[in-house]
Amino acid sequence: MTRVLGAPDGEQSADALGGEPRGPRVWAARAGWAVADSAVVARRYLAHLVYKPDEVVGTLMIPVLAVLLFGFVFGEAMGAAMGVGGEDYRDFLMPGLFALTMAFGIGNTTIAVVTDVGRGVVDRFRTLPMAPSALLVGRSMADVVSAVVDLLVLVGMGLLIGWQWHHGPWAALAGLGLLLLLRLAFTWIGIYLGLLVRSPEAAMKFFSLVFPLAMVAETFVPTEVIPGWLAPVAEWNPLSATVLACRELFGNTTVVGESWVAQNALLMAVVWPLVLMVVFVPLAVRRYRRLSR
């Protein structure tokens, strides 16, 4: 029987067949190792953003243009369709744009991952003495940190055009937390797609699927003004749950439907991201393990 040096008998031992050491201290050490390696990988990705700010600008361009177009150009007309004024419509619009930005982050994640795979970066990381999970977890950590910056910019822009939260700072932080949870779930979808496709061009084709997801939701108009056959799709869209929950937490103008999912938006804003991660985290891990086979 083998032992880890300095470990108590029976705690960090391996069986006679040469199994790996087991025990609470070993698992704790491995967890700390994985966290430290993931943080290093996350810093690497974030450092790249410092030298490539165009990626952040590109992500923010669509929601910023949406604020200008839908908030000021079409705001009065869309507000009239909802029975509210332009100012109230902008109050309604901003949580939708926050969630829209989280969804569009899939594109950056997918392209970054497929680029790293194509350039051999992933293969080089796999040869290093680091935790196997560090590359994927580090990528997700970096994307969430980047999403925090995106949200801060959009919140600042919203404050400039008159948007604000009305239920206090803790409710506002809870709303931002739900947005980041959604971004984390979409990050793992992007990681899986980045490991699945073979080129950035193919990744862009998958990214185009985000647009219907973003439009057939509560982002720009309530489901009540969406055609009846599309309304159930919009109501069960993960984006809609987060948008409705954020409007409730921020105290913004909202129109809540009568469906069960709309009445339980706060619950679904937590459930949907968790379900997506339960599905896509194992898929991404499996695909990562098969890259060099």
Automatic annotation (TrEMBL):
Q: Family, per the entry?
A: Belongs to the ABC-2 integral membrane protein family.
Q: What is the lineage of its organism?
A: Bacteria, Bacillati, Actinomycetota, Actinomycetes, Streptosporangiales
Occurrences of domain ABC transmembrane type-2 (ranges): 54-291
Specify the protein's topology with respect to the membrane.
Multi-pass membrane protein
Superkingdom: Bacteria
Cellular localisation: Cell membrane; Membrane
Q: List UniProt keywords, sorted A-Z.
A: Antibiotic resistance, Cell membrane, Membrane, Transmembrane, Transmembrane helix, Transport
This protein is called Transport permease protein
Keyword Metal-binding assigned to the entry: answer is no
Which PANTHER family does this entry report, sorted A to Z? NODULATION PROTEIN J
Asked if the record carries the keyword Cell membrane, the reply is yes
Spell out where the chain crosses the membrane: 56-77, 97-122, 143-165, 171-197, 209-230, 265-285
